[in-house]
Amino acid sequence: MTKLLEWLFGVSLVGAVWALVSFDLLDLSLPQTYREVAWPMPLYLLVSFGCYSLATVGYRVATFNDCEEAAKELQGQIKEAKEDLRRRGLKM
Amino acid sequence: MATGVDQAVGMSLVVFSLLLFTYYSVWVIILPFVDNDHILHKYFLPREYSVIVPGVAAVILLLCIGAFTAVIMWKNRKPKKVD
Questions:
Q1: Cβ contacts (< 8 Å) between B14 and chain A: which residues?
Q2: Which ipTM was obtained for this model?
Q3: Widest distance between CA atoms in chain B
Q4: Where are the alpha helices (DSSP H) in chain B?
Q5: What is the pTM of this model?
Q6: Is the Cβ pair B18, A51 closer than 8 Å?
Q7: Alpha-helix runs per DSSP H in chain A
Q8: pLDDT tens sequence across A40-76
Q9: A35, A64, A72, B20: least surrounded by Cβ within 10 Å?
Q10: Which of residues 43-82 of A touch B (CB under 8 A)?
């Protein structure tokens, strides 16, 4: 079985369980509060995934190291390249 | 370590997402189990809004992305060469 089929199978299984609980398809008559919690679950998972992504991006922005030497080296290389091109006649 | 503005922006993103996650979790998961006359309900909108607000926010986000893409593509259009 391919990975796609596995994922689709898993997703449809979870979706079936969610539909059963939220819309009471089997007439299990669960307490109303459980149904109220289960119903927004897909949206809740999406929102929490978005929050996790935002937090990860923010954390990595805050802890990214500045590389002083690499920056200086790059500036030097840019100057070199400009000089070289100017010598060859490219107007900058 | 990143300095100055980078750290401030990064940390504010983390704090904002934590606050958003906590508020939304309480709204969706904890509030139905709390009695209707508890004072906590005062701080949260009715539960229908817990679905409508993220839906509207998603639509607005998609609109912004679409508008940005359209502006960039408009700026980069090249007139066709006439042979």
A1: 55, 58-59, 62
A2: 0.74
A3: 78
A4: 5-25, 49-75
A5: 0.72
A6: yes
A7: 3-23, 32-38, 41-63, 68-87
A8: 898 999 999 999 999 999 999 888 888 888 999 999 9
A9: A72
A10: 43-44, 46-48, 51-52, 54-55, 57-66
